Amino acid sequence: MAERLYVGIDLGTYQSTIASSTGSLETIETVVGRPKDPVARNFLGRDVLFGADALKNKLACNIYRPMAAGVTQDDEANLAAAKAFVTHLVETVDPEEYDEVFGVICSPSHVSFTDKSNLVATLRGQVNAIMVVTEPFATAFGIGEISGSIVVDIGAGTTDIARLYGTFPSEEDQLTITEAGDWIDGQLVELIRKKYTGAQVTKDMVRKWKEEFSYVSGDDREQMVELSVEGKKQVVDIGDLVKDACGLIINKVGAAVKSIVASADPEYQPILRNNIILSGGGSLIEGVADAVAHEIADIGDVTVTCVDDPIEKVATGAMALAQEMPDEQYTAIN
Fold it and tell me: How far does CA 69 lie from the centroid of its chain?
C-alpha cells in the first residue's frame, strides 16, 4: 500500500468537490436521498442515493441537502445524511489503497465551533487527520495569490470575502454574507411568479436556468423556458428576469468588498483594491467582474478578475495546501 493520500474537500451547499494527490477530481451535487417506504426501497434497490441520482428519484425519496449555508445542519437526520455523503465522496478517490489519508476541508469564513465540530465529525473514519480552512484562502493558495489580494467566493449558501497578506487570514480579515447563489435563485423565483401569475416553479428549476443563462450586463436577452401555469404548459421569456435577479447581488458584494478594503491597513489598501479576485459558482455569471468593478469604482482604481475553473479551485487549492502543511498543523480525528 502507498504511504499517504492527501485530499482537498470543498463541501458546498449545492455541489461538492474532492481533489486528491493522485490527480483525481470529482464533483457531486450535495444531495442525499433515502427511499420513503419499502415500495420505494424495492423499486430503487438501494438504501441511499447521492447527487443527480437522488434528484432524479426525488419523489420516491426523502431528500436532504445537508450542507445548507456551507456547514452541516445540526440535526440528527442531516448529520447522518452528511456523514453518508462525505463517505461516498471520499470513496471516489480510492482511499483504501493508502495507509493514511490527510485532508484539508473548506468552510465559509465565519462558522461556529459547533459547525466546525460537525464538519470534522463527518470525516471521522474517512481520514486520519484534518485541517479546516476557509474557501477564499484555499482558492488563493491554489492560484498563488495569498499575498496582497482580496478573494470573493460567491458560493451557493454564502459569499465569503477575505483579504490576504501571505498568512492564514484572521477573523478580522474575513467577512461572510448570506446573499449568494441560493439567494439569487429565490429572487428569480419571485420575479417569475410576479410576471407570470400562477407559474409553478421550484428552486431546482430556476437554478438550472440561471446556470445556463446568467448575465448582468448589456441589453436584455430573450431566453425561452418551459414552465407550468396552473398545470398548463407555457413557453415564456425569462431573459430580463435572469439579468435582474443576478444583478441584485452586485451591490451586496460591492458593499462587502468596500468594508474589507476600508478596514485594512491603509498602506495595503491600494494593493488590495487592484487585486480583487472572484471565485465560486457566482463568478461564472457573465459580466460579473466588470459589474462589481463599476459598483466599487468610487473607492479608487480597482481591478476585478475571475478565476478560471472556479468550481474546482477550492478543492484543488485545499489539496495543494494539504501537501505543503507540516503534520503538526493537522488534527488527528481517528
Answer: 9
Q: Give the pLDDT confidence of 67-98 residue by residue, as tens digits.
A: 876 666 667 888 888 889 989 999 999 888 88
Torsion angle of the four alpha carbons 137, 140, 144, 148, in this order, in degrees rounded to the nearest 10: -90
Q: Say what percent of the chain tops pLDDT 70.
A: 95
pLDDT score of 28: 94
3-state secondary structure of 12: coil
Q: Do both 160 and 262 map to the same domain?
A: yes
Residue with cell 470573493: 152
Q: Residue 325: which CATH number?
A: 3.30.420.40
Are residues 326 and 260 located together in one domain of the fold? no
Neighbouring residues of 39: CB distance < 8 A, sequence distance ≥ 6: none
- The domain tally of the chain equals 3
- Clarify whether residues 216 and 204 are in a common domain: yes
Angle at 267 between CA 266 and CA 273, to 5 degrees: 75
- The answer to whether the pTM exceeds 0.85 is yes
